Amino acid sequence: MSLGVRLEGLSVAYGAARVLEATDLELPAGSFTALLGPSGCGKSTVLGAVAGFVRPTAGRVTAGSAPVRAPGPERGVVFQHYALFPWRTARGNVEFALKRLGLPRPERRRRALAALAEVGLAEGAEKYPAQLSGGMQQRVALARALAAEPEVLLMDEPFGALDALTRTRMQDLLRELWRRRGTTVLFVTHDIDEALALAERVVVLGGAPGRVLADHTVPAGPPDAALRSLIAHHLGAE
Ligand SMILES: Nc1ncnc2c1ncn2[C@@H]1O[C@H](COP(=O)(O)OP(=O)(O)OP(=O)(O)O)[C@@H](O)[C@H]1O
């Protein structure tokens, strides 16, 4: 299951600082979009508005047919810093996140174990975060988001703190999960190659206040050098 997301005339200001100005963006249900742009251009703000953490000063965000007013379980979020509770096991962390869904304990356990297995961490379910590598901790954070069975997955530089090899493995895992589940994905990164490796579409955000500078479909198949240099040009044109 997946939901489409629509941003219409979205403006966000933090006090006097205008971060986004009248931004329109439509994410079709089941699509995988990378949001690329230089530091501070408002990528996390877009993601936060879809997640329901950030209030628009103008415009609106809808997920499916419902206006976004607050965070909700149908929109899962994964951050760069996984923010796991150190005193809970991997399973405990995932189960805890399911509490707000009001699921009975056996169902929480079943879903937590299934999600950990889905991210390849069945063996690590009873380990504590300190016993897990960074990549494994990020798998727990991904399992925590997936266990709620979100229809939209919002990811804010989730692999930014991982070493290159682990990062590639996590990218492969995410592509596979997306293919299997068909969840709508919005993936924030400032890495062009990561955006091109993962997404079907790359949206470049930039300017001050931020707006959509470019919107490219990524063709299937081997890396497209011409597209890469075009996107680099948009980023450099900042
Ligand atoms: N809660 C806040 N209060 C005040 N200013 C904020 C707040 N959150 C973000 N900003 C400012 O808004 C601008 C956009 O921030 P945002 O985090 O959305 O950008 P970003 O493109 O995701 O950046 P990065 O790539 O560095 O994470 C920045 O100038 C930032 O300092």
Protein described:
By secondary structure, the chain is α/β, with parallel strands linked by helices. It folds into two domains: 5-74 and 150-235, Rossmann fold (3-Layer(aba) Sandwich), CATH 3.40.50.300; 85-148. It is built from seven helices and ten strands. It has a six-stranded mixed beta sheet, with helices on both faces. Strands 2-1-4-5 form a four-stranded antiparallel beta sheet, covered by helices on one side. Bound molecules: adenosine-5'-triphosphate. The site of adenosine-5'-triphosphate has 12 residues, from strand 2 and helix 1.
Number of discrete domains: 2
Q: What ranges have pLDDT less than 50 throughout 5 or more consecutive residues?
A: none
Largest sheet, spatial ordering of strands:
6-7-8-3-9-10
End-to-end separation: 37 Å
Q: H/E order of the elements?
A: EEEHEEEHHHEHEHEEH
- According to CATH, what is the topology of the largest domain? Rossmann fold
The structural class is alpha/beta
| Major beta sheet summary | 6 strands, mixed
In DSSP terms, counting alpha (H) and pi (I) runs of 4 or more, how many helices? Answer: 7
Ions, cofactors and other ligands present here are: adenosine-5'-triphosphate
- CATH arch. level architecture of the largest domain: 3-Layer(aba) Sandwich
Q: Rounded to an integer, what's the Rg over CA atoms?
A: 18 Å
CATH superfamily of the largest domain: P-loop containing nucleotide triphosphate hydrolases
Note the overall shape: globular
